Amino acid sequence: MYKRTEGIVLTTRTYVEADLIVNYLTKDYGIISVYAKSPRKVKSRFGSSLEPLTYSKIAFIGKEQSNLPRLVQADILTPFQKLRECYRTFIKVSEIVRLTMKLIPEGQPMKTLFPLMLNTLKVLEKRPESRIPLIYYKIKLLSISGFSPMIDRCARCNGSADKFYLSEGSTLCSNCIDIAEEHMEITKALKNLYLFLWRSNPDVLNRIKIDRDLENRLEELITSHINYTVDISIVGF
Ligand SMILES: [Zn+2]
Fold first, then answer.
1. Ligand 1 center–CA 168 separation, angstroms
2. Domain tally, the chain
């Protein structure tokens, strides 16, 4: 088996001696792990192509059932070096990388995930201070992985609702609330912004402008939902 695709390096870790295991998000095969022979030797063919976030054309070989194919080629398309050089930006990007690896199982081709990640990195490289590409990425990732919060209706009766409960991962209407728990008010503007981003293609990031207060509230909603839902569900496995 010899396969070619495009991939973004998510993480790397040492294998035996000078070898590395590289996690890629690929265009055609979802997240995969491959091993790279001696990439840290001076004459390695891989050069800097295995740095985290590097986007490359790659080729790997391995038996069909082998869980660790071998990387044989990695030609850099975009290094995304700026994202690695700025510590604050790298921390933010690392967070969405970790979240992606937590929510998306290896080896499941997901057509929309690769362009989503690639576009997010491109936008962040141009505008590293912008928070909306990261919020957008999280909204879409939650949708792809089936963890979206429900904020447009009551989860129990489907009626209109505007109070969001973390333990439900959704809004509830006043008739259905039977839990004593802090909630977050979902205003019409917040609901509309969330639904707009949830529906939009990534190119929306190049033209959207959001009120700062609304952006803060959307970020708080998405971050709290992720911290609660994702952490709980991972512990439950
Ligand atoms: Zn209800």
1. 12
2. 2
Query: pLDDT by residue (tens digit) across 114-147?
Result: 999 999 999 999 999 999 999 999 999 999 999 9
Give the domain range for residue 131.
83-235
Q: Cα of 183 to ligand 1 centre, how many Å?
A: 15
Dist. CA 164 → ligand 1 center (Å): 12
Same-domain pairing of 225 and 121: yes
Do 217 and 105 lie in a common domain?
yes
Same domain, 71 and 136: no
Which CATH number fits the domain that encloses residue 170? 1.20.1440.120
Q: How far is the CA of 170 from the centre of ligand 1 (A)?
A: 11
Same domain membership, residue 204 and residue 119: yes
Cα–ligand 1 centroid distance for 171 (angstroms) = 9
* Residues surrounding ion ligand 1 at CB below 5 Å: 154, 156-157, 159, 173, 176
**Mind listing the pLDDT tens digit for each residue in 71-105?**
999 999 999 999 999 999 999 999 999 999 999 99
Q: How does DSSP assign the chain, residue by residue? A: -EEEEEEEEEEEEE-STT-EEEEEEETTTEEEEEEESSTTSTT-TTTTTTSTT-EEEEEEE--TT-SS-EEEEEEEEE--HHHHHSHHHHHHHHHHHHHHHHHS-TT---TTHHHHHHHHHHHHHH-TT-SHHHHHHHHHHHHHHT---EEEEETTT-S---EEETTTTEEE-TTT-------EE--HHHHHHHHHHHHS-GGGGGT----HHHHHHHHHHHHHHIIIIIHHHHHT-
Q: What pLDDT, in 10s, does the model give residues 11-50?
A: 999 887 778 999 999 999 999 999 998 776 656 778 889 9
**From ligand 1's centre to the CA of 207, what distance in Å?**
36
Q: How far is the CA of 159 from the centre of ligand 1 (A)?
A: 5
